[in-house]
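PT: before anyone asks, these are the final sequences, not the draft ones from last week. 285 residues across everything. Please model them as a single complex and drop the result in this thread when it's through.
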Amino acid sequence: MELGTEEQKKKYLPKMATGEYIGAFALTEPSAGSNAANLKTTAVKKGDKYIINGSKHYITNAVDGQVFTVMAVTDPEKGAKGITSFIVEKDFPGFQLGAVEEKMGLRGSHSAELFFEDMEVPEENVLGEVNRGYVNALKILANGRAGLAARNLGSCEKLLEHCLEYANERTQFGKPIIEIQAVQHMLSEMTMMIESLRSLTYRVAWMTDQGKRVVKEAAIAKLYGSEVYNKVADLAVQIHGGIGYMKDYPIERYFRDARITKIYEGTSEIQRNIIAGELIRETRK
Ligand SMILES: Cc1cc2nc3c(=O)[nH]c(=O)nc-3n(C[C@H](O)[C@H](O)[C@H](O)COP(=O)(O)OP(=O)(O)OC[C@H]3O[C@@H](n4cnc5c(N)ncnc54)[C@H](O)[C@@H]3O)c2cc1C
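LR: through. Structure below.
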């Protein structure tokens, strides 16, 4: 939506909006994780096509996706400023799906490897300008981080709902466990964290709508949201006692799913680097 030409938008967006096409974002490679610019996948122009060779891993929706944003090196001399984004359809010759990862959590979606062997991509499938792929991806990832904060908030709200329901139903020592002060304190702790995450998330959303720079705020919301989600999921297991550890209840799934939020879309350490980078930028301007 942000970078596509009118033709690209007409061709892909309606199908993506109806769910006929599922999209995937393919940046990460074995050599390019936190240092995402260290790509080995190359794209070489040949006539009116680009020939892409290389691989990606950990790509969400790789199995079910029809259309992929793939980042590849177009000018190796220029580092991060020599990377281009391409719109790749899974039917393009040379596109190959690799092994599907066995994950701790997020098992409702597949993550897999991708291989490109002399994959032919028409020139009109360049997304945004040539050599601006990484710079544009960084901007889009900043918005993605605000979205992840919102997803974390939603998961936490649902966990609190489950906990309130269970704490009212479950009785020990002749009374519902919600009447036990230790349990009440856990519920209060969860609520306090959830409400502060809500304020942060809504603020980033509001700032985005105002067209303001949200690099620092989105990193804070992503980082804090993942901390809160992990703590809330842990407390939720505790409130549920033994059943919280069992697969009969959804709580253990949230607990497993929460962990990835400190890793993907930029690890917590990278978010701290971004926040510090913005602080330095603000003090030096
Ligand atoms: C389930 C799942 C789904 C994913 N989905 C996608 C997807 O759809 N598309 C995609 O492109 N990628 C995806 N990823 C990749 C994800 O974004 C990367 O795994 C993540 O950015 C971390 O990279 P890495 O795994 O190579 O870890 P590394 O970069 O090797 O990091 C290892 C450790 O070193 C630390 N570290 C590294 N550099 C620094 C630094 N400069 N300062 C401080 N600490 C540092 C990290 O914080 C971490 O603790 C997914 C990953 C997973 C696990």
